[in-house]
Amino acid sequence: MKALVYGGPGSRSWTEIPDPVIRDPRDAVIRVDAVTICGTDLHILGGDVPAVEPGRVLGHEAVGTVVEVGSGVAGLAPGDRVLASCISACGICRYCRDGAYGQCLGGGGWILGHRVDGVQAELARIPFADLSTYKLPDQVSDEAAVLLADILPTSYEVGVLNGGVRPGDTVAIVGAGPIGLAAVLTARLYSPAHVIVIDKAESRLQAAKLFGADITVLAGTEDPLAAVRSVTGGLGADVVIEAVGTPQTFELCATLVRAGGHLANVGVHGKPVTLHLEDLWIRNVTITTGLVDTYSTPKLLDMLVAGQLDLGHMVTHRFGIGDFMQAYDVFADPARTGALKVVLSR
After folding, report:
1. What family does the Swiss-Prot or TrEMBL record give for this protein (predicted)?
2. Which residue ranges of the chain lie beneath pLDDT 70?
3. Nearest in space to 234 (alpha carbons), one of 217, 259, 263, 265
């Protein structure tokens, strides 16, 4: 089969590798029908995730058809159409029993495209398949479902839920990439008074308006702090969601949050960040970080089926399953291409 293989920082190739096989009784092998590229994959290519070794197949977001199941897999059979979660769960360790699947001690957590070969391939092995896949109803398209593999649960759990968004809040979101836009969409489920989105690309701010942002700020041209204070009586945002992963954006978030507010970091950081405790300690600010656990995926899938989540504006570019090199070029240059989420499918 062919797969997108990481060759070290800055290096990737669509190349022939051996087909995956069942290695553990709880494995399944799927034919990848739809797959996407994550900002985390760009961080890997940038050298920000040194645990990823050269030779690794990238990718952790896919919809596929089950080809083979191990003897220990219950509830799945060849031919089933499934969502492959970005997080694998052993189901029996301390963290899995608490629903914190991202911290799995039994060989799971974020492993696809990280510590084991991922899903940017024609075929993929899915560990702990009975707990790490979700059967898909016929009315949910591959394109919509693949967005529930990572970006929707990540934004919802690590941004909106960890941030404690409540009705009437002012929510500021720094970064209008796919994660930031998914945060806009899921924050709106809690009826905030304002959703303010800050980004340096006008095209992404226009997308944020489509997803429900009522105020947008063009970074570098407009003043984010003034915009937030103008609708909060000078206090600052109740919840600030960091959805980029750079020192500059994190420090901006720390200036936007009100006393007693919450800064929820979602972005993947590859460089140290200065934490200005000399300013924050006295202001009762809560800061949370997190890797998604995907405990919310079934609920998000139910909302998608019920028509409560409109993902129609998220995918901007579509490619065939063999067009990964072009798809990466488009996704990595959103200022030029206007890319939000790219999907590759059969």
Report:
1. Belongs to the zinc-containing alcohol dehydrogenase family.
2. none
3. 259
